[in-house]
Specification:
By secondary structure, this protein is of the alpha/beta class. It has 19 helices and ten strands. Bound molecules: 6-phosphogluconic acid (6PG).
């Protein structure tokens, strides 16, 4: 029997959709699930694709069915279960076989798994897959980390299943060990910021301007035709237009305002902090999810302090809808600039040589943050590969100049109205601090020197590193 080109373990929602996608693109695939009933169920529901699928009941049979060197996708719950699955598989594998973790793994775990296999003749790929259920089935964006040789073994299959942006496959090998999972983590950090900023604008419309979900949906529909064109705006339009089958009112109005999170957004913020790279919009988005989950405390506090007046706009000048659109665009630039800056630093620290234009390129379709905007980022980084930050590339600096005044007006009005807009505000103050040649950290340095004799550098370069407050000033 002709051997399968690839294997996949874990037939839950993401795994089974990915397996069907692989089969549909003409690749023979062997599948295995811990509970064999699930394998039967999956195989029976595969219809015409059955001929491309080899359902296996034992690990031995599964490994035997794949053409060596065997690429085996593990699509199960991230964390411990992945290590357990790898241990179960190992005794059956042989030289050159590649275990591929396609879950939302922490890239530090990926590096550790990769290293554990370093001195064996097996290898490991950490593969970020974005696009949810639909993406997995019809074309996700795929971020690969591992050795170049292992990438070559899977390149053809992965290229066949990835989303295509105007014909370009949204998959790439991004570097060694944890590179793929790191980039996926930052994708998710940006996803958090993007979603939070859209939610804040929704809050301005709902609470500051008294608009209904239907009205806001229509505005987002309009925006989706312009510079904000993106999957997240598109689905926001759709969810805001949906009717609750029970109350017959707006579906979104019936949903509890507590956001879940599985960790990738938080990891982005933590890694940004570890490297000393500001990712304030991402941090604000993670914190906003945390405060959202404190529903009881928020309700109790509202009883003490009352609701703000939410009067928006306060003496607002320009066309409000247009200004909100432009403000969201400016803030979005800030969040993406931060995400790319974190990746640039990680690339240096982990010696990955992450290709920025390629990352933007493979995010143009298939993934959750897909948008036309990412095509503009691709071309900005292609033209200015050494730019220190997205916002100083020639293309984006012009867009920033055009849109920041709107963000400033919107944030100012929202803050005056008592509307919480932490991600929009963070994007604005990131810009303000980033373009300020002379900041205020001179005072921080003086304070540090005063209480701890930490020393400072002088603007004139002279060799005096302490202030006239005397060393040991902490005893004052
Ligand atoms: C994707 C998504 C996906 C993630 C969900 C939920 O790129 O397809 O990022 O991987 O699991 O967005 O993440 P949270 O539960 O943390 O919101």
């Amino acid at each position: 029997m002709e051997k399968a080109e690839i294997g996949l373990i874990g037939l839950a929602v993401m795994g089974s959709n990915l397996a069907l996608n692989i089969a549909e693109k003409g690749n023979k695939i062997a599948v295995f699930n811990r509970t064999p009933e699930k394998t039967d169920e999956f195989y029976e529901s595969a219809g015409d694709l059955k001929k491309q699928i080899v359902p296996c009941k034992t690990i031995e049979e599964f490994v035997e069915a794949i053409r060596p060197p065997r690429p085996i996708i593990i699509m199960i719950k991230a964390g411990e279960p992945v290590d357990q699955q790898m241990e179960l598989l190992r005794p059956y594998l042989s030289k050159g076989d590649i275990m591929i973790d396609a879950g939302n793994a922490n890239f530090r775990d990926t590096i550790a798994r990769f290293d554990r296999l370093k001195d064996t003749d097996l290898t490991f790929i950490g593969m970020g897959v974005s696009g949810g259920e639909e993406g997995a089935r019809h074309g996700p964006s795929i971020m690969v980390g591992g050795t170049e040789d292992s990438w070559k073994r899977v390149e053809k299959v992965l290229t066949s299943i990835a989303a295509k942006y105007k014909g370009d496959p949204c998959v790439a090998w991004l570097g060694n060990d944890g590179a793929g999972h790191f980039v996926k983590t930052i994708h998710n950090g940006i996803e958090y910021a993007d979603m939070q900023m859209i939610a804040e604008i929704y809050g301005i419309f709902r609470d500051g301007l008294g608009k209904s979900s239907t009205d806001i949906s229509k505005i987002f529909g309009q925006w989706n035709k312009g510079r904000l064109n993106s999957y997240l705006i598109e689905i926001s339009e759709k969810v805001l237009a949906a009717t609750d089958p029970i109350s017959k009112g707006s579906m979104v109005d019936m949903i509890l305002d507590k956001a879940g999170q599985k960790g990738t957004g938080k990891w982005s913020a933590i890694e940004a902090q570890n490297m000393g790279i500001p990712a304030t919009a991402i941090e604000a988005a993670v914190a906003a999810r945390s405060i959202s989950s404190m529903k009881g405390e928020r309700e109790a506090a509202e009883k003490i302090f009352g609701k703000p007046e939410y009067k928006f706009p306060i003496a607002y000048g320009p066309d409000l809808d247009k200004d909100l659109e432009l403000a969201l665009f400016a803030a979005k630039i800030g969040a993406y600039a931060q995400g790319f800056a974190v990746m640039a630093e990680a690339s240096r620290e982990f010696k990955w040589s992450l290709p920025m234009p390629t990352i933007a390129k493979i995010w143009r379709d298939g993934c959750i943050i897909r948008s036309q905007f990412l095509d503009e980022i691709t071309s900005a980084f292609t033209k200015a590969p050494d730019a220190a930050n997205l916002i100083v590339t020639p293309a984006f600096s012009e867009m920033v100049k055009e849109s920041i005044p709107a963000l400033r007006r919107v944030v100012t009005a929202a803050l005056q109205a008592g509307l919480p807009v932490p991600a929009l505000t963070s994007a604005l103050t990131y810009f303000d601090a980033y373009r300020q040649g002379r900041g205020t950290a001179n005072l921080i340095q003086a304070q540090r020197d005063f209480f701890g004799a930490h020393g400072f550098d002088r603007l004139d370069g002279k060799d005096f590193h302490h202030g006239p407050w005397g060393s040991g000033a902490a005893t004052f």
